[in-house]
Amino acid sequence: MKGHIEEVRCLDAKGGYVVSGGTDNLIKIWLLETRACIKTLVGHRNWVRTIKIHNDQEHIISGSFDTDVRIWSIQTGNCLKVLSGHKDYISSISCFGDILLSSSFDHSIKIWDMKTGKCVATLCDHTNRVAAVDVTAYNREVLFVSVSYDCTLRLWTSYSGRFV
């Protein structure tokens, strides 16, 4: 399946879709059934580093070396929200319901409300680039996990914003 004009650096698959992002600053939406690119999303000003299809299969979330996180409509291909606030590259994103996490080379993790597009918290306990972040439900709690170039893995509780 060809479509990008430069290197492809990230992908996600869910339901009947695959989404890909690359160094051409583009996002492609592919339909698995036909193996065809059905949309090309344009908006990032630097290459797309990380991408996810939301569990609702209506939204795509992307993070870029332009320091922005974007929320897109799968149906229309339109960018619905631009989440700005990181001071360096976006390294990873993860979602759980309306909670969206972004990690960055600026040593921080931001917690966003997907509905409003507002940053509700910034976690800054890593002392080097944050390489990846994920979110999961465990024992009736929502937990965030992050790994960093500072050689640590941190586990955060969503209620306190503190690592445990």
From TrEMBL:
UniProt name for this protein: Uncharacterized protein
UniProt keywords, alphabetically: Repeat, WD repeat
Domain of life: Eukaryota
Pfam family, one: WD40
SUPFAM superfamilies associated with the record: WD40 repeat-like
Residue windows of the WD repeats: 1-40, 41-82, 83-122
